[in-house]
Specification:
Blueprint (H helix, E strand, L loop, with lengths): L3 E10 L2 E11 L4 E5 L6 H8 L7 E6 L3 E4 L11 H11 L4 H14 L15 H13 L5 E5 L7 H16 L3 E5 L11 E4 L8
Parallel strand pairs: 3-7, 3-8, 5-6, 6-7
Antiparallel strand pairs: 1-2, 1-4
């Protein structure tokens, strides 16, 4: 079975069609870039695949755990980095020490350099996004759904992120990535263009 299989997904918000009978596959060990104009429904499709919103029609099948990294994460601003690792780790059945150990290793792989004792409100945009990505990886997912996850990264972290995609795929994960960065599309295995459902944008 593929890491992700999408068949006939359609979604409307009021009178506006966002997705119209979309089919998509992501194999294990494959990275797929999802591209399209603003309003084509890329983020909506990822949210449907992650189970956060319901499609009006169609089916989504996944093989194993899902890690979802939204474009704009919602954190508990008064909590520290380690406290987020523990909180999200418990959702994956991890004890406190295992969640912190695994989370810190992931943060290090993403070149996270902020003080782990800082609260979320004290972090830079790039540090917040690295934590966002770490939380998506914490449960060792078989499928990664990434919505422009590099926002706020400096140049070094940005280059390292694309190297990490190769590493995740080598480990057998499927990666579906929403991106507008056409210059980097040679770093993925396949590109899927998402047409606008209403045909106008």
């Amino acid at each position: 079975m593929n890491a992700l299989q999408v068949r006939g997904i359609s979604k409307r918000f009021g009178h506006r069609a966002v997705l119209d009978a979309v089919d998509l596959d992501v194999r294990h060990g494959e990275s797929v870039a999802l591209v399209g104009e603003n309003g084509a429904g890329k983020s909506t499709l990822l949210q449907i695949c992650a189970g956060l919103i319901r499609a009006d029609a169609g089916t989504v099948m996944t093989d194993g755990r899902i890690g979802y990294c939204p474009q704009h994460a919602t954190f508990l601003e008064a909590l520290r980095v380690d406290e987020h690792l523990v909180l999200f780790g418990r959702a994956h059945g991890l004890g406190r020490s295992d969640a912190i150990r695994r989370g810190r290793a992931l943060l290090e792989s993403l070149e996270f350099s902020a003080d782990l004792r800082q609260t979320i409100r004290e972090l830079s945009g790039g540090a917040r996004q690295k934590l966002n990505l770490t939380l998506a990886l914490l449960g060792e997912p078989r499928l990664l759904l990434l919505d422009e996850p590099y926002q706020g990264f400096d140049r070094g972290s940005y280059v390292s992120f694309w190297d990490q995609i190769t590493h995740w795929c080598d480990a057998g994960r499927g990666v579906l990535l929403v991106t507008h960065l056409l210059a980097e599309l040679d770093r993925v295995d396949r590109i899927v263009g998402l047409p606008s459902a209403n045909g106008s944008r």
